Amino acid sequence: MALTLYHDTYTHTGSNACPADLVLLHGWGLHSLVWDAVMPALLEQFQVTVIDLPGLGRSPVPGGDYNLDYLVEHVLAVAPQRAVWIGWSLGGMVAMQVAVQFPERVKALITVASTPQFVADERWPSALKPELLQGFRNLLDEDWEGTLIRFLALQCKDSDSMRDDVRILKEIVYFHGLPAQKALRCGLDILRDVRLLDELQKIQCPTLHIFGEKDNLVPVSARSTLRQFQPDAQTAVIKGVSHVPFLSAPELFVAACRDFFSEHRLA
After folding, report:
1. 58, 164, 214, 246: which is deepest, by most CB within 10 A?
2. Of the residues 26, 31, 74, 243, which is catalytic?
3. Domain contains 37
4. Which of 21, 52, 165, 215 is the catalytic position?
């Protein structure tokens, strides 16, 4: 029997008898509980499916090479047939790839503190220095738990609510037990190696990229570069927050999403 990812679909709380589906994908090292602060507001407009990526949260690690295509395959196996997709960080990269390869499955796309390329080069300068991400990858082999906690702290650095953000992420990370080390190692490899810049033009659905003003992992300066590769996409910047805007400022995050939903009549 094939292993399937943990997923759960929450019932729409609004008045629509036939609500549209929405999929939420979390980022590296964490799981779907990170969305709890914004779930009630999203459920007012959608039927929401949360998915834990392989080896994280309550999901097993199915066999196969743990790469971006692997994540796409296993996420699609449990996702609704057609939905609005919201992906944070690594989850945003997965959602982008789904929109590129399986456009019939994606009604609209929102990425949150995510990017088609997490490391900088000549074409994509507004990103992490390769040696920084490789440093985390090297440390992971020596002290995976300490590296995980340091990475969580970096996600919250410089946010106006940094202390609260770090505390909440630390409470969440082990809530469903320890993450699989393979998921941590291979997840960082995906962030280090994947390049989706040339794929962006293939995304045909309405798209919104949300950035945190003080994000140290996905600099807000990437917003202008992104427009060169995907000129039809919309962008939004949430002030005072870093890499977890839905946690730091849930009301502002929901407002940005609702404006997008309303403009494209998605809910």
Report:
1. 246
2. 243
3. yes
4. 215
Judge whether residue 2 has pLDDT over 80: no
Range of the domain at 73: 7-263
Q: Which of 32, 89, 159, 248 is catalytic?
A: 89
Measured between alpha carbons, how far is residue 132 from residues 70, 148, 157, 159, 191 in Å?
25, 14, 15, 20, 12
Using a pLDDT cut of 90, give the percent of the chain over it: 92
Tell me the pLDDT tens digit for each residue of 92-131: 999 999 999 999 999 999 999 999 999 999 999 999 999 9
In a domain, 2, yes or no: no
Whether residue 96 is contained in a domain is answered as yes
Number of domains in the chain: 1
Strand order in the sheet with 207-212: 7-10, 46-51, 20-25, 83-88, 106-112, 207-212, 234-238
Does residue 190 fall inside a structural domain? Answer: yes
Active site residue 176: no
| 215 catalytic residue (yes or no) | yes
Q: Look over the chain and give the mean of its residue pLDDT values, rounded to a whole number.
A: 95
pLDDT band at 17 (very low <50, low <70, confident <90, very high): confident
Per the annotation, the verdict on 193 as an active-site residue is no
What tokens appear for 158 in the block? 């410089």
Please report, for the domain that includes residue 225, its CATH number. 3.40.50.1820
pLDDT of residue 88: 98
Kind and range of the H or E element at 169?
Answer: helix 162-173
